[in-house]
Amino acid sequence: MAAAAKAQKAEEKKDRPLKDRRGEERDGIVALWDAVDQRRWDELVARADRSALEQSSAYGMAMSRASAYTPVTAVFMRGPEPVALALVLEWRFPGGFRIAKLTRGPVFLTDDVSETERAAIFGLIKQRYPVAKLNLFFMTPELAAGTESDALLRGIGMRPMVTGYSTVWLDLRPELEALRAGLHMKWRNQLKLAEAEPIRVRSGFGGAPMEWLLTRHDQHRKRRKFRAPAGAFVAAIADSSRDKRATQVFTAYVGSEPIAAILTVRHGNSATYYVGWTGVEGREKQAHNLLLWSAITKLKGMGVEWLDLGGVDGLHMPGVSRFKLGVGGELVTLAGTYL
């Protein structure tokens, strides 16, 4: 009975109607702006095969706490069914001037979207921010770099400004044995060395381990002067999530002393490896390999299907990039930022 009631409740959530907001229409696609609350947004994001952290409600709310940007949501409807989502950040100025940016969206909820419908979705987003009405709109879409993506974006009147961001997506759906076999040989050997060390890995959802990690992350970020989210912003994402278990910290201990830690954030069927830090002893003992493998194991057990390993930049971060590529995922370079 309990299982049946749970299934019925899930169906009711799935079919929960959107607020009746009149939207713009193009080629059979209707854009509904600010038509859902955080709960409904999270439910819709969970329908996607995979999605980026920047399109999660927690990220949008954290941005509103940390900056002048306000998150604005769009749901794109084909008849009664939502087929795509976009979370846009807007910064409004006196006099009507507005800066807006879409990062790593839109999120498509189905593969059954035609090229015409896809172009309509991008066009409806751009349509909200006409230059003639004092809008400055930046789009960094979740589209692979290439001529097709460039043609799509130029077709709605946008031009490239910044080259594409690269990341590694790891598919967590295969069995653990297959995931381990997919590790690059050097990475797998480093993992074996770490497993032979007297290291204990503990995971948690905040508290002292998160504070320990974010303090060292901030110190390292400021000392090395590299671009990375500030610790306060990471904490704001954790605090903004409806699911207080979405942000996890994995910490490596030798005895009672922590030597390294990483932080992951879950969003829908995906998770992002967002922050990490290790000291001299952690590097010597290959603690990061053990931590990331522990995270992969834990996230997979929680039903997460995709892990976004974050930025890969062989020129400025060769060591970090080799580490992420060694996990054996798919290297993806996005189309870049368009204006």
Write the layout of secondary structure elements.
Elements: H1 2-14, E1 24-26, E2 29-33, H2 38-45, H3 57-66, E3 70-78, E4 81-92, E5 98-103, E6 107-108, H4 115-127, E7 135-140, H5 147-155, E8 160-162, E9 166-171, H6 176-181, H7 185-196, E10 200-204, H8 207-224, H9 231-240, E11 247-254, E12 257-267, E13 270-278, H10 280-284, H11 287-301, E14 306-311, H12 318-325, E15 330-333, E16 337-338
Parallel strand pairs: 5-7, 13-14
Antiparallel strand pairs: 1-2, 2-3, 3-4, 4-5, 4-6, 8-16, 9-14, 9-15, 10-11, 11-12, 12-13
Helix pairs in contact: 3-9, 7-11, 8-9
CATH class label of the largest domain: Alpha Beta
Total of helices: 12
Instruction: Summarize the helix and strand pattern as letters.
Output: HEEHHEEEEHEHEEHHEHHEEEHHEHEE
Task: Find the CATH superfamily of the largest domain.
Answer: Gcn5-related N-acetyltransferase (GNAT)
The CATH topology annotation of the largest domain reads as Aminopeptidase
Q: Please report which band the strand proportion falls in: under 5%, 5-15%, 15-25%, 25-35%, 35-45% or over 45%.
A: 25-35%
* First-last Cα distance: 54 Å
Low-confidence parts? 1-15
Task: State the shape.
Answer: globular
Q: Based on helices, strands and strand pairing, what is the structural class?
A: alpha+beta
Outline of the structure:
By secondary structure, this protein is an alpha+beta fold.
Task: Describe this protein's structure.
By secondary structure, the chain is of the alpha+beta class. The chain folds into 2 domains: 2-158, Gcn5-related N-acetyltransferase (GNAT) (Aminopeptidase), CATH 3.40.630; 167-333, Gcn5-related N-acetyltransferase (GNAT) (Aminopeptidase, 3-Layer(aba) Sandwich). It contains 12 helices and 16 strands. The protein has helices at residues 2-14, 38-45, 57-66, 115-127, 147-155, 176-181, 185-196, 207-224, 231-240, 280-284, 287-301, 318-325, and strands at residues 24-26, 29-33, 70-78, 81-92, 98-103, 107-108, 135-140, 160-162, 166-171, 200-204, 247-254, 257-267, 270-278, 306-311, 330-333, 337-338. Strands 1, 2, 3, 4, 5, 6 and 7 form a 7-stranded mixed β-sheet that branches. The chain has a 7-stranded mixed β-sheet with strand order 10-11-12-13-14-9-15. Mean pLDDT is 93; it is low at 1-15.
